[in-house]
Amino acid sequence: MSHAQDIYAGLNHQEFAHWKAVAQQVADRLYATLLERDRANQHPFEEIDWLRQSGLLKLAVPKSLGGGGANLVQALEIGRIISAADGSLGQLITYHYSNGVWSYILGNREQWEFIARGVAEKGWFQSSISNPRDPRLQLEWDGSDLYVTGRRTFATGAAVSQVMTIAVWVGDELVQYQVTADQPGITFNDDWDNLGQRLTASGTLEFNRLRLQEKDRLTGLEEKPHSALLRNALRNQFSQLIFVHFYLGIAEGALKQAAAYFRDTVRPWPESGVESAQQDPYHRLKAGELASDLAAGIALAEKTAHAFQDAFHAGDDLSETQWGELALLTDQAKVIANNVALKISNEIYELTGGRSTSNQYGLDVFWRNVRTHTLHDPVAYRTREVGDYVLSGKLPTPRVYAPPKR
């Protein structure tokens, strides 16, 4: 049994049922205030505290370190529950869980346990500053310590986090540091004013000679370099997988709220010849189509989550073939989740009708959130990778980000 398989064994059915109930309680609270909070467009300090107080932030920390003990499959399902109520907070909590995976993969044992205990005992929320398309930071060395200066975009959750993973290009090597967010030399800019995902604190930040000490450099991959590429490349797959789950969560929420509006408000069309809108065959057809698409997307997402967990548990025994099979499955899940979420959040209006476009109902939040984040990276590249396999039979190969031009 690998170390990862031992410590991320997961919860039994009864334990996990408890945490799903907790997540639903938080989700209900988030949805009840969604429109007010979305319009305010403020950093979600209070919402992160709701997650902290519920215990959900430490859910994916092993029990041996004071956490909830959920495995990655279970953590992703919790993220989907939160996303159905509030896509912004769903994104934040799944990013938080993914950063825990990054700490485990990238850090050595001491570094990972320090962060995990901070999450479990102090309620730390994790973020990462790693947009690979940003210009290089200015670097100054003082012995083994590094001082960085520059601007970073799409720093999701950084302004409300207690610990950050910062990616720095040193030559052609991408070096990761993990620091607490209260360091001098960090300025969080309150400039996130986008169409959707408005409560993710995804604005820019500035580094002004931020000191990155050698002890903060994550060195876990250096300990076993023969497996470093494969394990490092798992991070890309998990990033795509968390997108899949919170996209589908948003789609679930959109369909649920549209159905509730339909039952309470929608009247039959005069030409339908039926007494209630629920008897209209076209409405039943559309609802059945959307629900079936959603169910298919969730089934593929769950299959992919289990495959990722198997690869994660394999540790240093992970093979390139296993990585490629996981990448193909993740690509397919991403394509389906992207398309299903956009379709459902758009076509629910064919069920709910013109009156449902009133701002008082807020059905547009689901579409705005999905539309905003699905532009995160072009889904066409994932579709192309699947097509390459179909036509050539060649599995995807491990990939990490290439350095930006100097």
Automatic annotation (TrEMBL):
Pfam families: Acyl-CoA_dh_2 (PF08028), Acyl-CoA_dh_N (PF02771). Residues 20-112 form the Acyl-CoA dehydrogenase/oxidase N-terminal domain. One of its GO terms (biological process) is L-leucine catabolic process. GO terms for molecular function: 3-methylbutanoyl-CoA dehydrogenase activity; flavin adenine dinucleotide binding; monooxygenase activity. Residues 242-376 form the Acyl-CoA dehydrogenase C-terminal domain. Keywords: Monooxygenase, Oxidoreductase. Coiled coil: none annotated. This is Monooxygenase. It comes from Kluyvera genomosp. 3.
